[in-house]
Amino acid sequence: MTHGRANILLLVAGAIWGFGFVAQSSAMASVGPFMFVSLRFFLAALTVIPLALREARAAPVKLTRADYNGFFFIGVLLFAGAALQQIGMQTTSVTNAGFLTGLYVVMVPFLAVILFWQWPHPIVWPCALAALAGIFLLSGGHLDGLTIGDWLIVACAVFWALQIIFINRLGMKSGRPIMLSFVQFMVCGVLGLVATSFTERSELFSILAAAPEILFAGVISSGIGFTLQAVGQRFTTAPQAAIMLSSEALFAALFGAMLLGERLSLQGSVGCALIFLAMIAVELIPALRSRARVRP
Length: 296
What we know:
It is found in: Cell membrane. By secondary structure, this protein is mainly alpha-helical.
């Protein structure tokens, strides 16, 4: 797969997540955050089982214990991010949640430098800041006072950033992105179920009330979206992946306009433009400079 096609997959993942944000928010009226996370990721695991088995049959070598350990660790990071986001959404506004979740765009290159002294292409820094500014403008350009929910969303962004980094560091060595997705989904489902048993009281009628949101978040947002992320990241860098995935906010605004009749303000339109320019620049500028170096 080419670098460009990988980024297209990441864009599709961002579009799916943007569409699914409403499902995550409305489901909280019926079920607790840990139950939602558990059911969501168990459904996601069921969604990718056929693909994981097909991938395993076609694989030239078997996975090692180290591979599975890496998959498990990535699953823990995913669970921490998903759980913190769901809990935080109970006590913060959608505007704040959208902006603060987008902090992972800037956190990825910073954490990559801090943890591994891995310096990205210089264009990543202004592009990450431009994408973050775009998300901020899309959210309305202001924060309504930071609550405990806001700080939980900030912590969620840290774990999203770490998950993106470690997919590239640990998950891609095996060449088995579908199995990576299956394992991390199962880890999230089991951890969510354990947390539910200690913290929440869920009944069948409440789960049925949130069934449409759980189905969409599990099959589409998680099963398809996170698998596209895992596949796409095999052929691109973590900072570039973070910027491409930040299109989630852009697509959320577009779907809101198309399906709910919402209209973007001038400020929101500028935010869309900043995200789009950041995605184009992070893709084209490194490629153009590479071609310039090899040109006779």
